[in-house]
Amino acid sequence: MATMPKGMEHVDRRELYTSLPARVFYLQQFLEFGADDVAALSEGQKYIKAIIPAIVNMVYKKLLRHDITARVFSTRDSRNEEDPDRWIGEEDAQIRHRKMFLRWYLTKLNSDPSKMEYWQYLDKVGLMHVGKGRKNPLHVDYIFLGACLGYIQDSMTEAILSHPRLDLTQKIAIVRAIGKVIWIQNDLMAKWHIEDGKEFADSDWNDELQAEAQQPEGYVNGKRVLGKVDEDDSSIDGTASSISSEKSTTSLGRTMEQVRLSNEQSKCPFSGMANGGHELNSQRAATWRPRRDDPMVPPSSPTGIPRLRVIDGKTVGKEKLGLSPFE
């Protein structure tokens, strides 16, 4: 057997499938996720946090748009193609509750990745979607999880690249860091759906799996890592809900009416940005340019209209924008 060439590093295949730290370390090395990415995520936290509520609403509009994903909120299993007796709507208490957890998840995704607890939670997100070890199991096929992650990444990327107060260097750093984190999350979801490495599973591994899966949502190793008491209104819009939704409570014991009233009093961190509109053209990177052979040709409209923008101090969606919202 030949010796490894100089500079080549050994990776133990068993460890990739039996040790989460080893798997995460390998992925971080391969993607070159390091201190610069951690710093970029820290720098970008306040900007990403401001757009999370809008992204949450966009994601659930997507999930409720198609029957194959909408019925999961009733059946808890995307393999079940039987239509429910009643379709869940966006204003139902269950969806408002799920929006809260998605908001917490995206906030966690945008927190400090230098701690192993961070990656343990991302791994648990994958586990909780394969229907293992829970009294009320949930199974979501990987295609829907991957598509959802892709949509979230695209939305965050577009929002950051369009931000009028970030320079190009900052935008590149934040987008790259987010992309690496989301792709590691993608792997930690896919690992629970594929058969690779199953030969390394043993009884001890299965016992640990069952114990982890039975912990409440938002907990890792018996410790709460997701959400705070004062954050349970942040992912819910200010529109009035149905009577049934108003009477229901969140997992923290707050009524939907309390959540709605509290949310109405909150302010967007970008409040007042509209006053600096004259700076937008100088700070925004061009998304299209004239042809080389005719520099006088006026720019044509871009192929895609941005979904997220800060207009008059508020984050708004694609359906409310014109072709050139900043002009």
Automatic annotation (TrEMBL):
Gene3D superfamilies: Globins. Residues 230-254, 270-308 are annotated as: Disordered. Residues 236-251 have a biased composition (Low complexity). It comes from Exophiala xenobiotica. Pfam families: Protoglobin. GO terms for molecular function: heme binding; oxygen binding. Residues 22-199 form the Globin-sensor domain. It comes from the Eukaryota. This is Globin-sensor domain-containing protein. InterPro entries: Globin-like_sf, Globin-sensor_dom, Globin/Proto.
